[in-house]
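Bug #77: duplicate submission created two jobs. Keeping one. Sequence:
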Amino acid sequence: MSKPDKKQAILDTALTLFVSQGFYATSTASIAKKAGVATGTLFHHFPSKDELMKHLFLSIKQEFADAITASIKDSGDLKQDAEHLWYSAIQWAIDYPLKQEFFQQYSMSPSIAIEIREQAMNSILSFMGNLMQQGQTQGLFASYPLTLMQDNCHGQYLAATRYFLDNPEKWQVDTHKQASFSMFWNAMVQS
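Kept job's structure:
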């Protein structure tokens, strides 16, 4: 197994174990053993379990953001663009349920340092902040503090994906799909 393969095996195994057992119950030794690498190899790539968690969190967030930004269509209609982003984001969660489960467990967890969550929100997911600022500039969105809006929207995303992962058949029902976007949109619009 080459070094990149070993590193990826460690990340894939850590993802599975963190989701199934939890961060604190998962030892670095169990990750290394299940990944088929020496514990020293794990520590060569990740000096600590916290560093492994941080890397995993940011790399999956980046993968998510890359998939969403690749689907961005600037139609000139903010609501239509936001709806497309919302549906793309939820579809990603449905396509990658293990990664989404990881987010469900760790996005708001004290296991992830606040500066790492902020890095994910402000740089990796900057397209969401840009959309919100655009909405505020156009007078469509309320002038709530941007970081509060981002956290609220993130919470709505986690709730919607939890619902659709628990009830996958509902994702195919237009009324449920549209309702999820309406709740997201209505939380931001100027009243």
